[in-house]
Each structure stands twice: as C-alpha cells, then as structure tokens.
Design the sequence.
C-alpha cells in the first residue's frame, strides 16, 4: 500500500513572486526525507487550469508518496517540514487544502512501485 499526500497552496494576494519561488525551491528539498517513498515528491504551479476560476485561487500543488500513515506522520512532524512550511508558507498563507488517501494494492503498479 502507498499513501498519497496532496496539498494545494494559496498565497495572499500581496505576496511577491520571489517569495513563492523560494517556497517552491525549499519545499522540493523535502523529497530527500527518508519517509518520502522513493523520494517521490512533486511540486508544481502556478495552476494552468482553464478556466482559472476552477482552481479557486490555489496556485501550487504538492503530491508526495509515503509507505503508510506512520511515514506520513513522520514527514509532517519532521524538523525540515516544519522549517520549510513555517518559514516559506505559513507567514504568507491565505489557504491550504490537504487530502491524503491510501491506494489499493492493485494500484501500486500504476504508481510505479
């Protein structure tokens, strides 16, 4: 089983692009954490959804993979995760959506595991 962790990020309107770019650079470093399965963590944005209104103002997304709930909890509690989110997102945050789910064993091959 693999646990999929999805986060959508929305910055306040007054946040400069330079801040957002530093956030992207820093959050990508989390893929090196041992609790990220096979270092599979992808961050992207800004949204290219059309029409853009369907994105509801969320600009960036993160998708990461974890072995199980314990590994996700380890990821969330890590000092690196705390540093990156606490420094590069929380002070600039307008909103955030998080969605986590466990895959079925049959879907492991689709994910490349």
Sequence:
């Amino acid at each position: 089983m693999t646990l999929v962790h999805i986060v959508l990020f929305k910055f306040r309107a007054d946040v400069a692009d330079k801040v957002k770019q530093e956030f992207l650079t820093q959050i990508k470093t989390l893929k090196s954490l041992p609790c990220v399965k096979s270092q599979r963590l992808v961050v992207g944005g800004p949204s290219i959804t059309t029409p853009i209104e369907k994105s509801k103002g969320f600009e960036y997304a993160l998708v990461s993979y974890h072995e199980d709930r314990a590994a996700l909890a380890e990821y969330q509690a890590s000092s690196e995760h705390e540093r990156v989110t606490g420094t590069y997102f929380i002070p600039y945050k307008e909103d955030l959506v998080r969605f986590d789910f466990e895959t079925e064993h049959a879907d492991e091959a689709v994910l490349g595991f």
